[in-house]
Specification:
Layout lengths: L5 H9 L25 E5 L3 H11 L12 E6 L15 H13 L4 E4 L7 H7 L2 H8 L2 E2 L7 E5 L7 E5 H5 L2 E5 L1 E5 L3 E3 L1 H4 L15 H12 L3 E10 L12 E10 L2 H12 L7 H9 L11 E4 L4
Parallel strand pairs: 1-12, 2-3, 2-7, 3-4, 7-10, 8-10
Antiparallel strand pairs: 1-11, 5-6, 8-9, 10-11
């Protein structure tokens, strides 16, 4: 496959979505030159389940990440009392598919949860995630205040913070954010989604938000990031509400580099990754690469 320019990527993803973008000459795709799995995969299609399966398969299959007997956390965004069509929470079909393929790969147990911003009983149901995850065989849990522990983060903004025990006791964490606008952070994607694994006064994290999120990314180091861009929220995030700000991209991206995953999310949104302080700081910390041209990125299509 030949290299793909940023303009060509945006045309591929945004075709029919009605999102304007400014062409740029810099390249973000580098074709794989070996048989090794790519660093990052992008898949577009009408079925959230099919494109999720295809993206994971192109990365080398879930067996590359999950060992038999593993306890796995699949961490979606369930923060808001919104239905899937409002694009404030992770697509439930993406979550369901990931749970199934983790169990198929030999996981002993898959747990799904989020420390929500609104009433979790409503968020879990209205998002469709509780029903979808349980259907696939996951154990869906509500966070329990007694299970938060003050832990050494050893970050630049966070020395210690309350962390949910399930997240540190699990063998693997799969981060499954939705791509959407955020009024303070500009965008919320993978590293921002890790806030759902911590407790305490999370409003304080916003005092040094970008640095705090980098600290959390360095602490948790998720095994895999799967970015839901089936529907994206273009304005009024993170809660949204109005369907006029929702666009369908019918896209899922997956990769092991959490900085690159946020960088590709910014690009899908029409923003240069280097304009986001979070991505730049995480790159400087050595948590991953924001220069996507240096990575092996592959575009795939779902099985028909």
């Amino acid at each position: 496959m030949s290299g793909i320019t940023r303009r060509e990527l945006l045309k591929y993803v945004l075709a029919g979505a009605g999102i304007a973008f400014t062409p740029s000459p810099w390249r973000i795709f580098a074709s794989p030159t070996t048989t090794a799995p790519p660093d990052l995969v992008i898949c577009k299609g009408p079925s959230p389940s099919s494109i999720t399966k295809a993206a994971i398969q192109a990365l080398g299959g879930m067996e590359r990440f999950i060992s038999r007997g593993d306890v796995v956390i699949v961490k979606p965004n369930i923060a808001w009392d919104r239905v899937p069509e409002q694009a404030a929470t992770t697509n439930p079909e993406v979550v369901e598919t990931l749970v199934r393929i983790c169990l198929d790969a030999g996981a002993k147990e898959v747990k799904v949860f989020d420390n929500t911003c609104e009433d979790p009983r409503r968020c879990y149901v209205r998002s469709g995630i509780m029903e979808a995850a349980k259907k696939a065989g996951a154990r869906v849990i509500y966070t329990d205040e007694r299970r938060f522990r003050n832990m050494e983060i050893k970050g630049e903004a966070l020395e210690k913070w309350e962390v949910y025990q399930e997240a540190v006791e699990a063998d693997k964490v799969i981060n499954v954010p939705i791509l959407k606008h955020h009024s303070l952070a500009r965008l919320t994607m993978g590293m921002k989604n890790l806030m759902g694994l911590v407790g305490g006064n999370r409003a304080r994290l916003h005092w040094q938000l970008d640095q705090a999120l980098v600290d959390l990314a360095a602490f948790f180091k998720p095994t895999l990031v799967v970015l839901d861009a089936v529907r994206i929220l273009t304005r009024n995030g993170p809660q949204g509400g109005s369907l006029k700000y929702v666009k369908r991209l019918n896209t899922v991206a997956a990769g092991v580099d959490q900085v690159a995953m946020d960088a590709v999310g910014a690009t899908l949104f029409g923003l240069p990754p280097e304009e986001m302080d979070l991505i730049r700081l995480a790159h400087q910390r050595g948590l991953g690469h924001m220069d996507l041209a240096r990575l092996k990125i592959k575009e795939v299509k779902p099985d028909s």
